[in-house]
Specification:
Length: 658
């Protein structure tokens, strides 16, 4: 193969070298002119014929029955291409790079095919499984369809049979009614005929007697013995008839006609129904009377309290301020002031005005002075120097406080809340900015006491309230929303007022009726409302951008605080001590069990632990306390219980829980 190369076509010189020609460039006009001058008899070069013969021979020797047929077919072409590269030295680099590029691509495609082979097998297996499942499901469906068709036919036959029975029974009833009417008419005819016959017989008898008397004028001349015997027999008949008459009167003296009996029975039934209705109305009136009595007593107490407050206000009050003067001072003008002042008393308006003034002053401050490292300074505020005022909006502060609560609920609450708060700020803003944000948030929550989120956070942060109060309140609100959602069977966000009342009574079984009424009014109920009126219950739990809740949730919080005060006042009355007196742990335990017998042991120990500031593990068991062991001032104990989540677990009349 490596011999002399013959030029082909014959008019092309094998030694021609193209000078200064770019790759793929070609002068078609010149080439076309020269081509037209060449003869048509052209033979292939010997080298080309040798390559084609070699390729044909190698292809004939291949075994094309195996799976790697395409790979084997490439091998002769690869060898021909290598011979070609070796003989053309000038183009060897270019042709080698072309060959290598194709070899790399073929290797890549080969690897890709090898990687896809398992997927192909898996796909075939999955396809077979799916086909089998489809066939099985179709067979099962065909069986079920046949069974249902069979059952349908049986039911249709049963329906036809029942219809035939119904038709036959109806015809039989019609026949019996017809026979009954005929018998009734026959008996009526017989009764009338019998009465007519009896009347005719009596008439004939009377006529016979008259005729006998008229035909026997000498009757007084008959035998006295015969007349005496007839008189005796007549008297016996009279006596027997009189006895039968007396017997009939004795047996049937109390019997009344059936028509009168049925009429009296119907009248008695109507009167009985009226009596039952009146009795139920009477019971309802009694219940309403008791409720009205309770409302009357509550109203009297409220009247006395309001009267005392009125007298106190009249004694200490000053002229009512003209709050409309604030419209021109507060930012936002009259409209914003009307929004802020809506539904607030004078004391609350003073707080609002102070917040507005304080907010303006707080915005003007660029820095806060550090409070130092004193013991009275909260740990998150201990710093010397000045710190920057970050000047966040109320919305930003509320969102940050909500994030703090979310993170707190996710953790195990091992560290104290102030330390956790500062750690959260360090994690959120970095150690360098945490102190500035601590001072900024502290000044904001101290100022905006009317904001629910800020005021509750401030109370927990300063140790004036346990964080369990906030957590329990959120759990109560979430549970209430869940119960309302369960009552919403259509999942439309709507429930009736009756459903709202039922959910409130089931969630708060120890609330009084007037408290439930207050919650319903806060939720949108009014006296003219019907029990079927719909309520969008989800709107009751919405918060605005500054964290303010709807009136329903606010009323729930107010009732919780009032009930806590009533509970602690009842505990104070049960103890029978003054606020300055000291109280022992056994007396507090006994008083709590008396006013709330349903308290379980764990909850009771939790209350005692808060009141006496002792770990629950160090509390003495019931019966092991010494009378003068652990004591605390009653005022301090009540203040500590006021800080934690304390609520009634059952009515006072219930038996103690085990």
């Amino acid at each position: 193969i490596g011999g002399q190369l013959s030029p082909w076509p014959t008019y092309t010189s094998g030694q021609t070298i193209l000078h200064n020609r770019k790759p793929c460039s070609y002068d078609y006009r010149k080439r076309a002119g020269s081509w037209q001058k060449q003869p048509l008899g052209i033979t292939k070069p010997r080298y080309l014929e040798q390559l084609e013969n070699y390729l044909r021979k190698e292809l004939l020797l291949l075994d094309l029955s195996t799976d790697s047929t395409q790979e084997l077919r490439l091998q002769p072409y690869r060898e021909i291409f290598e011979f070609f590269i070796e003989d053309f030295k000038t183009y060897k680099p270019l042709l080698s790079s072309i060959k290598n590029a194709y070899e790399v691509m073929l290797a890549h495609q080969r690897e890709k095919i090898r990687a896809l082979e398992p997927l192909k097998a898996k796909l075939i297996t999955v396809n077979e499984d799916c086909n089998e499942r489809i066939l099985a499901m179709r067979a099962e469906e065909r069986y079920e369809i046949s069974m249902l068709k069979r059952e349908k036919m049986n039911l249709l036959k049963l329906i036809d049979k029942k219809n035939e029975e119904k038709i036959s029974l109806q015809s039989e009833v019609s026949k019996l009614r017809k026979n009954l009417a005929e018998e009734y008419l026959r008996y009526l005819s017989e009764r009338d005929a019998r009465k007519i016959l009896i009347a005719d017989l009596n008439e004939l008898r009377y006529q016979r007697e008259d005729m006998s008397l008229a035909q026997s004028p000498g009757i007084w001349g008959e035998d006295p013995v015969k007349l005496t015997l007839a008189l005796k027999m007549t008297r016996q008949d009279l006596t027997r008839t009189q006895m039968e008459l007396n017997t009939m009167k004795a047996n049937f003296g109390d019997v009344v006609p059936r028509r009168d009996f049925e009429m009296q029975e119907k009248t008695n039934k109507d009167l009985q129904e009226q009596l039952d209705s009146l009795r139920s109305d009477y019971e309802e009136v009694c219940k309403e009377h008791e409720i009205l009595l309770q409302l009357h007593m509550t109203t009297l107490k409220e009247r006395d309290r309001f009267h005392s407050e009125l007298q106190e206000i009249q004694r200490t009050s000053t002229p009512r301020p003209d709050w409309s003067k604030c419209e021109d001072v507060v930012a936002g003008g009259p409209d914003r002031w009307q929004m802020l002042a809506e539904g607030k008393n004078s004391d609350q308006l003073v707080d609002v005005l102070l917040e507005e003034i304080g907010e303006g002053l707080l915005r003007e401050k660029d820095f806060f002075p550090g409070l130092g490292y004193g013991e009275a300074i909260p740990p998150f505020l201990r710093f010397d120097g000045i710190v920057e005022n970050k000047k966040p909006t109320k919305k930003d502060v509320v969102n940050l406080l909500k994030d703090v609560w979310k993170q707190r609920l996710l953790e195990e609450q091992k560290e104290k809340f102030p330390d956790f708060f500062f750690s959260f700020l360090e994690h959120r803003f970095g150690p360098g900015e945490a102190m500035a944000w601590a001072y900024t948030i502290f000044e904001n929550i101290k100022l905006f006491r009317s904001n629910e989120v800020m005021s509750q956070f401030y109370a927990v942060l300063m140790g004036k309230r346990s964080e369990s109060v906030y957590i329990k309140q959120k759990e109560t609100v979430a549970q209430l929303l869940k119960e309302m959602t369960n009552a919403d069977s259509q999942n439309e966000g709507l429930i009736t007022m009756e459903n709202l009342s039922t959910v409130l009574k089931s969630t708060f079984p120890f609330k009084k009726e007037e408290k439930i009424q207050e919650l319903m009014e806060a939720g949108g109920w009014h006296p003219n409302s019907s029990s079927a009126d719909l309520l969008n219950y989800r709107s009751l739990f919405i918060e605005d951008e500054e964290g303010q809740s709807m009136p329903f949730v606010q009323k729930l919080w107010e009732q919780y605080m009032d009930e806590k005060d009533e509970y602690l006042e009842e505990l104070k009355q049960e103890l029978g001590l003054e606020l300055d007196d000291e109280v022992t742990l056994p007396k507090v335990r006994e008083a709590l069990m008396n006013i709330d017998p349903s308290l379980d042991k764990r909850t009771l120990n939790g209350y005692l632990s808060w009141a006496f500031q002792l770990p629950m593990t160090e509390l003495p068991e019931e019966g092991e306390e010494k009378e003068e062991g652990i004591v605390v001032q009653l005022k301090i104990a009540l203040q500590r219980l006021q800080m934690t989540d304390i609520r009634r677990m059952g009515s006072r009349e219930q038996e103690p829980a085990s």
